[in-house]
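From: lab user (bench 3)
To: helpdesk
Subject: output format question, protein + zinc ion

Hello, I'm new to running complex predictions and I'm not sure whether the block I got back is the full result or only part of it. Here's what I submitted:
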Amino acid sequence: MSRTIIRGGLVITATEETEADVLIEDDTIAAIATPALAREWTADTVLDATGRYVIPGGVDAHTHMEMPFGGTFASDTFETGTRAAAWGGTTTIIDFAIQPVGRTLREGVEAWHAKADERCAIDYGFHGILSDVGDGVLKEMDALVGEGITSFKMFMAYPGVFYSDDGQILRAMQQAGDNGALIMMHAENGIAIDVLVRQALDAGRTAPKHHGRVRHPRLEAEATHRAIQLAAVAGSPLYVVHVSATQAIAEITRARHEGQPVFGETCPQYLFLTVDELDGPGFDGAKYVCSTPLRPAEHQASLWRALRTDDLSVVSTDHCPFCFAGQKELGRDDFSKIPNGIPGVENRLDLLHDAVVAGHITRRRWVELACTTPARMFGLHPRKGTLAPGSDADVVLYDPHAEQVLSAETHHMNVDYNAYEGRRITGRARTVLSRGEVIVHEGEYRGRPGRGRFLRRDTCDYLT
Ligand SMILES: NC(=O)NCCC(=O)O
Ligand SMILES: [Zn+2]
Ligand SMILES: [Zn+2]
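Helpdesk reply: Thanks, we reran it on our side. This is the complete output you should expect:
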């Protein structure tokens, strides 16, 4: 048996901050104790965490490695994307296996296993994406829940691609109400947006900034409201992904106050970037095309408030990188052809730590939003997302005083720009352990493709 001790750090979980040492036996946390009690421990490896925070590895519940979109594929493979995640202190991702239209969900899951298995540097799970709901798919959902794929994303946006109509959504929600799955919703009124897109293009408004204008916050709020009502009728829980607008938060807040099991996620891009990025020089705005879109700055105050009040409960990245050269450029003459998505899997923990420094959230809330709640929401807790005896030894030794400047020059994501280029932030993951193995240490990468394991997940911890 191999034994590792992490000595001298400040152990931070969602509920506690204590000066404590951590004992790891093989791939599991064996004990956490005060330095006085831990003095007797012996180990093969001792990691000095003096001056560092000791936190659980990040859980990013929303990534899209190699996702097909707009005639191209997200530029991070599972190999490059999970390596970048590890550099940034994230030790678990949950990616989305897409049901191809006209085919089975199982085919989508198998295709995702073919992309991810033997390639990931960290542990990984899958959600399903339902893009063609019918009787067969509803039955497949039941089987997949039994196999550890316990959440399914649906789209009220992107007609003709991933879109589901209200009847399909209601049926999938009814099924989820029965089998314990969690429906994740991309809530934007895609039918109305497509009308506005057509009108904009017909009027010659083809630049990236028009992406932000046609995707009105009210169309996010309307879809969020509709999804909440459908979930109430179906008797199912609901998790709204990438919430960006004040008006959508209000819908989620109201439903939660009425006791409905509705949860919301936002992403760093909505907290740190604004719609103004879409109006950058030349075609640069294309780098910031994502859906839901970036919003005017005033929405950020609502997002931070909702993260503090728990009306939004998770910060994931929606990591969906497309290179500017050759990929974002597909929409040079038509903003609707710009592949949607922003990179960020490497930067999430650091950006959120910078928000701790800025006073938006506390240290414990940082851990809760980035590690613990996503693990609980998607059936991985207490194995992931916390530091406790019996949990997987996914641990980050975090330097809260390190200064860094985010840049494509230094990041590890396979994409030719960084959405936060030049941003100076405080904090950095120095040492990262995944199941007891040191995979990043003081600027050296020690992981390898294929060491990450597929995670069969339980159902949502907030509903049992
Ligand atoms: N969000 C985004 O723009 N791209 C990824 C696909 C999605 O999550 O809708
Ligand atoms: Zn989406
Ligand atoms: Zn997404």
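A quick orientation on your result: Residues 8 and 50 are 5 Å apart (CA to CA). Let us know if anything else is unclear.
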